[in-house]
Write a structure and sequence with these properties.
Number of strands: 18
Strand order of the largest sheet: 2-1-8-14-3
Distance between the termini: 40 Å
Oligomer: single chain
Strand content: 25-35%
Length: 260
């Protein structure tokens, strides 16, 4: 499926500063954000599933919506474990609170973990070895993407939440033995999913969060970029439509307060 020219123009316009307002030579030498192709499947109001490809900036807010689970990761559903690449909008996955929810959206993209991202961001994967967090947790190794968060609190962050569980980036658990950072030199396909509400699901026997942009997203994005970002999600019209955050969330040296 081809990408509409209007979306390509909008993406390029969102990441490029107007050259008229700058010295032309300085603008030409400026390192500008690059674009990345994102694959999107969404459940429509009529029950159909749309599948599209879109170009959007290769910026953390956009990449985080697509880069949590590697191909082959097993998600617990009503019908048993299913590989993330075989999950479709409309399928029902089990949440850690004992309910099941319908998948409204699935996104994927391809990156090369051995190379820094266009913004210099570390895009390496995290390999979690079997039994790292207890018997069959995970059952076999899990390969998580750079935006994955575990519902678990490492020892060095427990003081922040009084020992309670919080959603923690997988990189915080790297110890060089049971949890290892890895950077394959070849392309890797990564995925993420949205449910009607933010929740934790079991992937390979571990509790990971479903996608949510975070409580601070509205302060991180311009109006033009926001429109481009929301265009990736057929089930939301504004950032507040993602709903409240289900658990305290750690990230970038702070904890996002749970939304009301």
């Amino acid at each position: 499926m081809s990408i509409p020219h209007s979306l390509v123009r909008a993406a390029r316009h969102a990441v490029n500063t107007d050259p008229v307002l700058q010295d032309p030579a300085a603008w030409r030498s400026q390192k500008r954000p690059q674009l990345r192709r994102y694959e999107i499947s969404a459940l429509l109001a009529n029950g159909n599933v749309s599948q599209t490809r879109q170009l959007a900036p290769a910026l953390p807010l956009f990449e985080d919506a697509f880069c949590a689970f590697s191909r082959g990761s097993l998600v617990e559903t009503e019908n048993g474990p299913v590989a993330i690449e075989d999950i479709l909008p409309g399928d029902r996955v089990n949440t850690t609170d004992g309910t099941s929810e319908t998948v409204l959206w699935k996104g994927s993209t391809t990156l090369v973990p051995g190379r820094p991202g266009p913004t210099g961001r570390n895009l390496r994967l995290t390999r979690i070895m079997p039994d790292t967090f207890g018997m069959q947790r995970p059952m076999s190794y899990v390969l998580a993407g750079p935006s994955a968060r575990l519902l678990n609190t490492p020892d060095h962050l427990r003081a922040l939440v009084g020992g309670a569980q919080m959603l923690t980036p997988v990189q915080e658990f790297v110890d060089g033995m049971n949890v290892i950072e890895t950077a394959p030199p070849t392309p890797v396909e990564l995925f993420h999913i949205c449910l009607p509400r933010h929740a934790a699901i079991r992937v390979g026997g571990l509790e990971f969060e479903t996608y949510h942009p975070g409580a601070n997203a509205v302060r991180m994005i311009s109006h033009a970029m926001r429109s481009l970002y929301l265009n990736l999600f057929a089930h939301v019209d504004q950032l507040s439509d993602f709903g409240p955050i289900a658990f305290p969330r750690a990230g970038e040296g702070q904890i996002n307060a749970m939304s009301a």
